[in-house]
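The following record pairs a protein chain with its ligand, FE4-S3 cluster.
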Amino acid sequence: MFCYQCQEAARNTGCTKVGVCGKPADVANLQDLLIFVTKGVALYQHELNQLGQGVPEADHFMVGSLFATITNANFDKQVFVNRIQDGLTLRKTLSNKLTAVSPATSVPNRDAAVWTAHTLDAFEAKASTVGVLATENEDVRSLRELITYGLKGLAAYVHHAQNLSQENQEITAFMHRALAQLTNDSLTADDLVALTLETGKFGVDGMSLLDQANTSAYGHPEITSVNIGVGTRPGILISGHDLKDMEELLEQTAGTGVDVYTHSEMLPANYYPAFKKYDHFIGNYGGSWWHQDKEFAAFNGPVLLTSNCLVPPKDSYKDRVYTTNTAGFEGVVHIADRPEGSQKDFTALIEHARKCQPPTELETGTIVGGFAHQQVLALADKVVDAVKTGAIKQFFVMAGCDARMKSRSYYTEFAEALPQDTVILTAGCAKYRYNKLPLGDIGGIPRVLDAGQCNDSYSLAVIALKLKEVFGLEDINDLPISYNIAWYEQKAVIVLLALLYLGVKNIHLGPTLPAFLSPNVAKVLVDNFGIAGIQSVEDDIQLFLS
Ligand code: SF4
Ligand code: SF3
């Protein structure tokens, strides 16, 4: 195996024996093969799309396959074997359709378009030859992977939107085109840089699509005090990013005597008006994803993972873990997709919860969030006044991911060290490094404004664009906003590419720069976009405020 897609890649170079995340080598290799097969599907679907003959099933397969390979989403070997088989069958269907509708059209002559096999041994033999290192040129490899990881992040957001019946053909057509182009050896580094920025454009579109899907289904997030204590009844803990699962779980648990709590990236579900009507929705339990070994143990009841981030569960609570969507782990019960027109069936979790103790209290009190674009724009006058009077000197976008590395204490210290006249705009699980600190407010505006999940970084961009308009500025970079983003997995990659596409410059990225950026590709990002890493808290605060 060779994997360097996340921030915890071994030695910031790559995992080669087993993932730091716990992904075994055979699963890592089969994930590489699945990406290869998905590119084969894309070669055909791209041609069919150009003829107006694209097949919706190929869009769903591509989105689900990319999403399943995201860090901490799925560790189940059989899932990847099945997906590879399905992909090969689907590719055949697409090939037949292409011959039927346009006998003169052929796909480019690429291995991904023709390779096939039927046994696990053959899959594994091929898998070891189609991974990241199959691209020899370091810079081409770096750009290809940057685009691939951006597409994986985008796929996650598109998948959640699909679950809410929102699709956008332009986005999936682009994704197929991009995947097909990643098999083209004659693309130059410049071509790939252009494709990287285009990926960012569709990143904005994908986040906008999901924002639209979430808010039209559940209303716009609003300022909310979220309880972080516990009730007295047994509960189900729901984690990940999928709000449709949240809705159906709340509905099915109503009146059963079982409470519902959010964990990690599901915290923002507390901010949506549609979920507030449920009395048994108690609040949020615990912190970001990597604390789950202790927090899932202490929760005492079943836990539902609706997407990443899943940590390989300990035996002490493994029987209480359930996965759904693209999340998976061998030996863990997987809740099947909803049949057309009806709900998923969460009966197993509810029955399980009934036999469990209530959660052990970890903390008490509340945290405040719900500052997505509509809520912040409703407060725009207040915010603009505060900027004009100098009560707010600067905003810091500190969106992104949290993870295990010790050096991430930087983000807590950075938040604590920021002057009192600054406001943090956050989204994603990065917030858990500072969302429980007593940072106070500025004239009633909390100093940490949480927009929501990582995809709600879109909200932060909408807010920035609105402020630019209100202040009559030409350039988004003239706003008093600095970007100090923490990344871990591939959703942060698409958020970053989306910000670059919107013209945001001088983004600081930490705690380490991606291992997949070759020195030359890193230089392109530094020279053209002012991307930088992080230094010490003191030096960075000085730099940002100068
Ligand atoms: Fe290593 Fe990250 Fe890949 Fe897991 S996802 S194998 S930790 S680089
Ligand atoms: Fe967190 Fe995994 Fe990235 Fe949605 S839950 S931000 S790390």
